[in-house]
Specification:
The complex is a heterodimer of chains A (about 625) and B (about 260). Chain A is mainly α and about 625 residues long. Helices cover about 75% and strands about 0% of the residues of chain A. In chain A, the strands form 2 sheets. Chain A has a two-stranded antiparallel sheet with strand order 1-2. In chain B, strand 4 and strand 5 form a beta hairpin. A 6-stranded mixed sheet of chain B has the order 6-7-8-3-9-10, with helices on both faces. Chain B has a 4-stranded antiparallel sheet with strand order 2-1-4-5, covered by helices on one side. With about 260 residues, chain B is an alpha/beta fold. Chain B starts with 5 loop residues before the first strand and ends in a 5-residue tail after the last strand. About 0% of the residues of chain B have low confidence. The chains are: A mainly alpha (about 625), B alpha/beta (about 260).
């Protein structure tokens, strides 16, 4: 769901960031008008909260677990505009510190998850809940569906962004430079996972937290409820009755959405495929993609893949069944069905495993460990940044722009050897800054390889071109172009992630913030980033203590539904704490003279030496882009 | 005699429909150190927030140096800044007080909001960092500080404005003895009348050193008033305000008898 660096072309990234900008602007203005001086503490504390929520390991039906993004619940508690800001801030901090999502893809990720996700989640919640009383079970259903819709729309957008890459961005030989799969593969591949696991994680956290808030403090749901009705009585049976209704609604969605979404997705694919032959459209596409000519034909490998699904039906079925469109829709439905069919016996099996073995994998323990690791990860980065090395000695402004330019170059170049050279340069920078390569390998290289490698693997076989090897038995063709496509994806990901890690490992966050301030990033954004990072630690600590104390009191095995309720209740407790802290922080800020307009100390001027070093970085980046064009 | 720093008359305050202060009256003279004693939830913190102009009384009136302190009087920017400059509040929870990304930013926050010139801010922050012995923490993030360090930075972040009136909410709560001693030393040093200090606390051990006069709180009202010595000897009052607990323990190996925990030998 978090798009890494190297999957999207620079023009796509810039386009999506530009598309996000007006939403951010409107959100900032609206929220400022509504919250006055409470804007800063509430938003930053809530961003820190969503950051921690993303680390919760949520038990899902089928014995698996997943992580939520939390835009559904953010939109329900804060309203869509404040949620856009809070989730954007959380995503930015995730990208910078934990390599979740690329630096160049921050705009894209914010557009998909924070903006589209919040708006869709909110609209769905309001539509389904309508004017139901605050404690109505209908609100729980509405919240679950809101979260589910939000994450799936975000995933669909990401899939479309992936899918248009190979159509628009290819090198001279027609080889895809970025995400290699077209819409017909990208859309089902993304949606199957999100319609099942990720979607359910979002659903569990949204509906569970609303159910928790209904019991504890329903007034928190008032602002976005659209109703002035009194809270209403606690509907005792709601706890047991609502989930079933919810599951029923989701089951219906599960069956219906692939059809709808994939119909849209393949329509896109068809449109694009036809346009490859149309000279007018080709010119438009070329202009839209920085004067790169799109390839003349749709990649043949993809047609092969789609024929796998339609093949069994082809001989007997009427024409519409033999169409590709139907093939994709069918593949998606089959995929979703397969996952559910596999999950059910798995759950049955897991429920019968000895308790001792299951205890080890308890989600409570997993979450506690994850939270601890996140804290440790960030603290370690701070220690590294305090060391005395080449990068650490550079002015933070030089580093921010210089490394940023190198990341931009890594995403823009069209030649593998230039990418490899930038990666080598970043390894040298790491060595000169006393950042062990082993650490970089473990933290960055292996992680990126595990993720992107998996994504890139099919491209090796699916990309048409010169066959250099055939897999024994399967006779799958290994093509030179396929290898290079996969190489691009992996090397780009590795290089950008290494550079981003270098920046974080060599610069204290406060110094980065000061650097942002120097470049005229609005004070409010800088302050939001600073406060979010600060409270992220407080909540990581709070959540960890909560899960650890829960773990120490846990006797026996919890039923899956109870585990979900427990996770949602923990998130609810954290939310209450979040809101309380934000109120207190607001008072503390007021006590020291804050009236709604934050002020920060401006940085000292850059010295000649700093400019020189900045010029060196810029020269290397420019050279790389020129050599790799 | 000049006007009292604070004059609180018959003030009531409700918090989420629950009465936190209930027709409370008290005063604080200029240069005086006043301790507010009371159990958790007895209204001490609420009173401090009212004195700091962060919440406003539902009924009754609070005057600061003879001028009425209310929402309207703080509306004007000049009046707001002048009040903030003169009255500083250190919150009970240091995690709430420290919301900036680094110790330096934390100390610079107040002066920046009050529109001090940049050069003066840098100098003053450096001065306070030295005075509070926290220079080595300058670039540290709040989450990298120990509990004692957090409290000291929280205090410094208020002292940087050099306020005339210092409001402290349990400044030595949950601290190790050495960190506690540092805070107490500081409060003792305020005893020459240079600063007006109001401290909410339930720490009776150091009371004589840090306060000139005490109020005992009970359910949002004043249950007693006097010098630290007078209060400490009023066992019945302290017990009623839940500041001490009748506790059984052995004294001379022979008799086990219930009696108040606090005693002086």
């Amino acid at each position: 769901m978090h798009i890494p660096d190297g999957y999207l072309s620079p023009s796509t990234c810039a386009g999506l960031a530009a598309a996000a900008a007006p939403f951010w602007y409107v959100a900032l203005r609206r929220v400022k008008a509504a919250l006055h001086s409470r804007l800063l503490p509430l938003l930053s504390v809530f961003a820190a909260f969503s950051f921690v929520i993303m680390m919760f390991n949520l038990p899902l039906p089928g014995g698996t677990s997943g992580h939520a993004v939390g835009m559904g619940i953010a939109a329900i508690v804060l309203g869509p505009w404040a949620s856009i800001l809070a989730i954007s801030i959380a995503l930015t901090i995730q990208a910078v510190f934990f390599g979740d999502g690329g630096i160049t893809a921050i705009g894209a990720n914010c557009f998909n998850m924070a903006i589209a996700g919040s708006l869709v989640g909110y609209a769905t919640y309001r539509l389904v809940a309508w004017r139901a009383p605050l404690r109505s079970g209908r609100r729980v259903v509405a919240a679950g569906l809101g979260g589910y819709a939000a994450i799936n729309v975000a995933a669909l957008l990401a899939a479309i962004e992936f899918g248009i890459q190979p159509l628009l961005f290819r090198d001279a030989s027609g080889m895809p430079l970025y995400a290699p799969y077209p819409l017909r593969i990208a859309v089902p591949a993304m949606m199957i996972g999100h319609l099942t696991f990720a979607g359910l994680a979002e659903l569990v956290i949204s509906s569970g937290m609303v159910a928790y808030l209904q019991r504890i403090d329903p007034e928190l749901l008032r602002a976005t409820s659209g109703t002035d009705l009194p809270v209403g009585p606690v509907s005792a049976p709601a706890g047991s009755r609502t989930p079933r209704k919810l599951w029923l609604a989701v089951a219906t969605l599960l069956i219906l959405t692939p059809l709808g979404i994939l119909a849209v997705g393949s329509a896109w694919g068809e449109w694009s495929a036809r346009d490859f032959a149309d000279p007018q459209a080709r010119r438009e596409m070329a202009a839209a993609s920085g004067n790169q000519a799109p390839p003349r034909a749709v990649p043949r490998g993809l047609e092969r893949l789609s024929s796998i699904w339609t093949a069994p039906l082809a001989r007997y079925a009427p024409a519409f069944v033999r169409s590709q469109t139907f093939g994709y829709v069918l593949s998606a439905v089959v995929g979703v069905g397969l996952i559910i069919a596999l999950a059910m016996p798995l759950q049955w099996l897991l429920a019968r495993l000895p308790a001792a073995r299951r205890r080890r994998k308890s989600f409570v323990e997993k979450t506690a460990r994850g939270l601890l690791e996140a804290t440790g990860h960030a603290l370690f980065a701070e220690d590294m940044a305090a060391a005395d090395g080449f990068l650490q000695r550079l002015d933070p402004r030089v580093k921010l722009v210089g490394i940023g330019a190198l990341i931009g170059a890594a995403v823009a170049v069209h030649r593998l050897w230039v990418l490899a050279a930038i990666l080598a340069l970043s390894s040298l920078l790491a060595l000169a800054s006393h950042i062990p390569l082993g650490l970089l390998a473990k933290r960055v290289w292996l992680t990126v390889l595990a993720f992107t490698g998996l994504v890139a693997l099919p491209a090796i076989f699916l990309t048409p071109g010169t066959i250099i090897y055939r897999l024994p038995l399967l006779a799958w063709p290994l093509t030179e172009q396929g290898l290079r496509t996969a190489g691009f994806l992996i090397l780009r990901g590795e290089t950008a992630a290494s550079l981003a890690a270098l920046l974080v490992l060599s610069t204290l966050w406060t110094h980065q913030l000061h650097a942002l301030r120097y470049f005229r990033v609005p004070v409010v954004i800088v302050a939001l980033l600073g406060m979010t990072y600060r409270y992220m630690f407080l909540f990581l600590e709070t959540a960890r203590a909560m899960f650890e104390s829960r773990e120490s009191r846990m006797v026996g095995v919890l039923q899956p539904a109870d585990r979900r309720r427990l996770a949602a209740a923990s998130a609810g407790v954290l939310l209450e704490k979040t809101l309380q802290v934000s109120g207190e922080v607001h008072l503390a800020m007021q006590a020291r003279g804050y009236r709604g307009e934050i002020r920060l100390l401006d940085e000292a001027r850059m010295r000649a030496n700093d400019w020189l070093r900045l010029a060196a970085f810029a020269a290397v980046a420019t050279l790389a882009v020129w050599l790799g064009r | 005699m000049s006007k009292p720093a604070f004059d609180v008359r018959n003030v009531s305050f409700r918090y989420h429909q629950v009465a936190a202060l209930n027709g409370l009256s008290m005063y604080v003279k200029r240069g005086e150190r006043v301790a507010l004693l009371g159990a958790n939830g007895s209204g001490k913190s609420t009173l401090l927030r009212l004195l700091a102009g962060l919440c406003f009384a539902d009924q009754g009136e609070i005057a600061f140096l003879g001028e009425s302190l209310n929402q309207q009087s703080l509306q004007d920017e000049k009046a707001f800044f002048s009040f903030r400059q003169r009255v500083g509040l250190v919150f009970q929870n240091a995690d709430v007080q420290l919301f900036c990304p680094s110790v330096f930013d934390e100390l610079a926050f107040g002066p920046l909001q009050l529109r001090w010139p940049a050069q003066k801010i840098r100098e003053r922050v450096g001065e306070v960092l030295r005075a509070m012995d926290i220079e080595h923490l300058r670039d540290r993030a709040p989450h990298r500080l120990s509990g004692g360090e957090k409290k000291r930075v929280a205090l410094a972040s208020v002292l940087v404005l050099d306020p005339e009136v210092l409001l402290l909410d349990e400044p030595s709560g949950a601290l190790d003895p050495s960190s506690q001693a540092r805070i107490v030393d500081f409060l003792v040093s305020c005893g020459n009348g240079a600063k007006t200090v109001v401290i909410a606390t339930h720490d009776l051990d150091t009371l004589e050193d840090i306060a000139d006069r005490c109020y005992v709180f009970e359910n949002g009202r004043i249950a007693g008033e006097g010098t630290p010595l007078e209060i400490l000897h009023d066992v019945e009052l302290l017990e009623r305000a839940k500041l001490i607990h009748p506790h059984a323990h052995v004294h001379d190996a022979s008799a086990v008898q219930p009696h108040p925990h606090l005693h002086r030998h």
